[in-house]
Write a structure and sequence with these properties.
Length: 285
C-alpha cells in the first residue's frame, strides 16, 4: 500500500497486525514506537514520520522506503551509502496528542481533524470567526458560530484555552479537537484534572502584514490603526488587550508616534500593576 501523499511509491506499507480504533498521530504528536531496522539517531527521515502517521495504536507494519524518503542521494556518513532504500518494521505502542500549551505541561492539547489552507496564523489580538462545538462523553452539548477579537472571549463565554489555542492554528480553515485542562477552562480554574473538550474550526481571521513588507506610508497607517485600537480598549478598561495593540505598534515605527505608544504601554502596565515593565516603557520613550 502506497502511503505517500502524491502516490509516488516512495513509502510502501504492509500491515502485519491491525491496530485499535481509527485515530492516528499527526505532526506534533508524541509517538512511542518499537522498530526493527536501520535508522540514524542523529538524523530523522521523512519516510519514518510518514509511516508512523499512517498507523493506529498497537498496529504493527513493515515499510519499504525509497531513498527520496530516506537519506537521499548523499546517504549518511559511512552508515548509509548514497541511494539506499530502507526497510523497517514499526510497532506503534501509543501516542499523545500535540501539546500546544505555553509551558508544555499538556494543559492544552490538539488533535488536528482537518488541515487548513494558507500559511498565516492568528495573532494574539486578531479578529476571528470560528465554529465551536463543545463535547461531553463524545456527544455535542453546545454548538455555535462566533465572531470576536482574541482577548475578548470571556465576554462570550470563550475559555482562555481556546483563545490561546487559536494562535497556534497554523492555517485558515483548520479544524481541531482541543483538550483543555484546569486553569485554561472557563468554568473551573482551580482543578487541574477538570477537562473540557471542544471542536473548533477557524473560518476566518484578521491578518496583519509584517512591517518589513509594507511601504513607509503603509507602516504609518497600520501603526495609527494599532494606536487607535489600543486607545479604544484602554477606554473600556481592557488594559491587557490595549497593551497588545500598543506593543504591536512599537514594532512598526520608531518615531514620535512610537514614543506615544511607549507612554501608553507604560500606563497600561501601571494599571496592571506591572511596575518594572512600566519603568522600561518610560525608559524606551
Amino acid at each position: 500500500m502506497d502511503i505517500t501523499h502524491n502516490l509516488d511509491g516512495g513509502v510502501l506499507k504492509e500491515i502485519l497486525v491491525h491496530g485499535n480504533g481509527t485515530d492516528k498521530p499527526h505532526k506534533g504528536c508524541m509517538a512511542y514506537v518499537h522498530y526493527t531496522g536501520s535508522l540514524s539517531d542523529d538524523m530523522t527521515i521523512k519516510g519514518f514520520d510518514l509511516a508512523v502517521s499512517s498507523m493506529a495504536c498497537d498496529e504493527r507494519s513493515t515499510f519499504q522506503c525509497h531513498p527520496d524518503y530516506g537519506y537521499g542521494l548523499n546517504g549518511f556518513e559511512q552508515i548509509f551509502p548514497p541511494n539506499t532504500s530502507l526497510t523497517f518494521e514499526i510497532h506503534l505502542l501509543k501516542w499523545t496528542w500535540e501539546d500546544i500549551s505555553r509551558k508544555k505541561d499538556k494543559s492544552i492539547t490538539r488533535q488536528i481533524l482537518e488541515y487548513g489552507v494558507d500559511n498565516a496564523t492568528p495573532s494574539s489580538f486578531s479578529f476571528v470567526n470560528i465554529h465551536l462545538e463543545k463535547e461531553e462523553n463524545g456527544n455535542v452539548i453546545e454548538e455555535r458560530d462566533i465572531e470576536f477579537r482574541l482577548g475578548e472571549g470571556k465576554d462570550l463565554s470563550i475559555c482562555p484555552g481556546i483563545e490561546f489555542a487559536l494562535t497556534k492554528f497554523k492555517k485558515k480553515k483548520e479544524k481541531s479537537r482541543l483538550f483543555i485542562y484546569g486553569k485554561h477552562t472557563f468554568l473551573n480554574f482551580g482543578n487541574y484534572d477538570f477537562k473540557e473538550v471542544y471542536v473548533i474550526k477557524l473560518n476566518f481571521f484578521e491578518k496583519f502584514e509584517e512591517s518589513w513588507s509594507l511601504t513607509s506610508e503603509d507602516r504609518i497607517e497600520q501603526a495609527k490603526f494599532f494606536k487607535q485600537k489600543g486607545t479604544d480598549y484602554f477606554k473600556m478598561d481592557n488594559f491587557k488587550l490595549a497593551l497588545k495593540f500598543y506593543n504591536k505598534m512599537e514594532g512598526y515605527l520608531k518615531n514620535d508616534i512610537s514614543i506615544t505608544s511607549y507612554l501608553n504601554s507604560a500606563l497600561c502596565n501601571l494599571k496592571l500593576h506591572k511596575h518594572i515593565q512600566a519603568k522600561n516603557d518610560c525608559e524606551n520613550a
